[in-house]
C-alpha cells in the first residue's frame, strides 16, 4: 500500500512536477539532473527562484530562493493553495 510519505519520494518526481504545475499554474524548466525551476507563485518574482530538487532523504522538495526563503513538500503546497489542514491535503 502506498503511503502519503511514499508520494513525496523521488520515484514520483515527474508526477509531482505535473501536479504542482497544474496546482500553481506555472511551468518548470529543467536546470540540472533532477532539478527544475520556475517563478515563485507566492510573491512577485522576476527570476526563476522557485526550485524543485530531491533531498538527501530521497524526497521531492520545493524551495524559494527569492523573497519567501522557504522550503515545502507537495503537501505543504496543497495546504498553501487551498488553505486547508494536512489531513485534507493528503486525503483529498
The biggest beta sheet is recorded as: 5 strands, antiparallel
Biggest sheet strand order reads 1-2-3-4-5
Output the number of helix runs. Answer: 3
DSSP helix fraction:
25-40%
Query: How would you sum up the global shape?
Result: globular
Percent strand equals: 15-25%
Radius of gyration: 13 Å
The SS-based structural class is: alpha+beta
User: In whole angstroms, how far apart are the ends?
Assistant: 17 Å
> What string, H for helix and E for strand, traces the elements in order?
HEEEEEHH
User: How many strands?
Assistant: 5
Summed over residues and divided by their number, the pLDDT gives a mean of: 93
Low-confidence stretches: none
Describe this structure in words.
- The longest helix is centred in the N-terminal third of the chain and has 12 residues.
- The protein has 3 helices and 5 strands.
- The protein is 29% helix and 22% strand.
- The model has no long low-confidence stretch (mean pLDDT 93).
- The chain is α+β, with helices and mostly antiparallel strands.
- A 5-stranded antiparallel sheet has the order 1-2-3-4-5.
- Helix 1 runs parallel beside helix 2.
Question: Can you summarize this structure?
Answer:
Helices cover 29% and strands 22% of the residues. The longest helix is centred in the first third of the chain and has 12 residues, at 13-24.
Topology:
Elements: H1 13-24, E1 29-32, E2 35-38, E3 50-54, E4 60-64, E5 71-72, H2 74-82, H3 86-91
Antiparallel strand pairs: 1-2, 2-3, 3-4, 4-5
Helix pairs in contact: 1-2
Features of the shown structure:
alpha+beta; 29% helix; globular
Amino acid at each position: 500500500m502506498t503511503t502519503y510519505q511514499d508520494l513525496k519520494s523521488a520515484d514520483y518526481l515527474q508526477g509531482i512536477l505535473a501536479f504542482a504545475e497544474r496546482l500553481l499554474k506555472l511551468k518548470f524548466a529543467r536546470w540540472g539532473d533532477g532539478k527544475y525551476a520556475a517563478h515563485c507563485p507566492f510573491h512577485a518574482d522576476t527570476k526563476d527562484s522557485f526550485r524543485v530538487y530531491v533531498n538527501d532523504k530521497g524526497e521531492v522538495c520545493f524551495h524559494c530562493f527569492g523573497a519567501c526563503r522557504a522550503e515545502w513538500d507537495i503537501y505543504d503546497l496543497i495546504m498553501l493553495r487551498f488553505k486547508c489542514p494536512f489531513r485534507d491535503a493528503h486525503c483529498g
